[in-house]
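Handout, page 2. Input:
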Amino acid sequence: MPKTYHARLILVILGVFCREVLSIFIEPVMSPHDGPPNEHLHCSMSNHVCSSGGTEEMSNKWWFKSSDGSTACQPVSHHDGPPNEHLHCSMSNHACGSGGTEECSMSNHACNSGGTEEVSNNSGSKAVMGQQHVALQRLQTQSTILTNGVSHIPKSNTPSSNRQKAAVIKSVTTCRSSSNRSKQNKNIRARKKAQKQVNALLPVSPPLKSDTVYEKEGLSKKIVFVDGGSHFNPPINPAVPPPKNKKKFNPPTRVLSVALGELVVPTHHLDDPTKGLIYKPGDNPSQIILVPRIDAINCIGKRTIPLCNALDAVEENLRTSQDRGVTKHVMCEDKHKYSCVGTQACRGATGIRTMHYALEKTDPNSQKRIMKLFRQIEELYARFVDTDQIRLVKEAVDFVEAKTFSVPQESAKKAKATIYGAYASGVNVYLSSHWDQDFTYCATSIHQRKPYLESQNVVAYFAFPRLGIAIPLRPGDNLFFNPKEPHCISSRCSNKEDIYCVSLYLKSANIGKNDNSTPLTHNQLPFLNQYNNK
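Output:
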């Protein structure tokens, strides 16, 4: 017994000695947040190990590492950073390593993605009892928005889609194959245009992490409107009609208020009519261009009452207000009708429709005044839009012989636009946030039945919810923007004033001709191969 007792005592001493030695040379295992060992962060009744890049709200506490290397638990203010920039997890064991928003309920979920994910187990989805939301447009990310400049190019390999691919690469190839003298002249013009943008357009900087907040709030999964009314104006209450499919339901509606500061409004150009705005991320094409006010009203005119009369004449010929599909909701006030007039891809048939019935019934003077607006906007387009984007759209239109906006006039030259194919307009109208499948910049202008002055009050805002900004618009202002960036026109600032909102656009379907029965020509095939091999 004594020998056995001493042997056990020696083993105990050796065990303690070995443990002390190991504790010196081996660091204790720490949690991903450098908190105490094996002590995970708790997040609303969950064990949550997270390595994401955002601010995290977990029972109002988060682990941080101090300068001396120690760890502590400190409360997080609900107002630290932009609103709703928090990750929420409830009743889940969730290991997360993404940079986006993850909302997980009743699931064990390991996530390493960079987007917005909403995950639930099978039992949770069955609890929805078959209710399905109307599918919104595919989420536009920074990479998809900047791909192919501002042109939307479908991924399918149909003849119509391939025509668009061949057309978008045409200007690049033409520039490369030009003579040295021609290349020099094009480069000189491009440098002059870039310098003109620097001199006349003030840069716009979206708030930090605005796209992250957009995804974390789930705005891409909601119907988003923007209230442009002042504090003295009653708030808007958009009534979104139910979907035609009775088995589906609309996503939740979210109204962003400019007056409450939910979007950043650049105002540093308002006191100088010779300055506009531009948002140009890095070496990419310009995404937003607000033409200097003095250039806009000198080109369009300081009085546009005939234009308003022409737009009213077309509206009177409309049988009903036109919609923009299940993902684009149009809110018209005072029983006005929303119109989309011009070239349009035929539904249920091939080809492009060139003349809208409402425009065809309109008197010739109204037709000419609307055609004049197209020429005026296209003049501003040539003066302020990036040179390479001008070449792209003009060469594409000529390359495929695309149809643009036209009216029945005697002079063929004056009766046809060179870039844009159609316009959309409405009185006191506001839309939900959406993105468009267009081939070049959309052009939006605001008009009223009053003279335009160099200094005038803002009457509406053009919002970009993903960027977190709203561009103020005065009567006569003209805005060019990338249609792939989620956007919408706000409600008017004051219900006492009537405003006309007019947007000019060129659909990518116009370039593809909406006809899969017509193959690509022998001139178009080489450019398609270059697009696929780029």
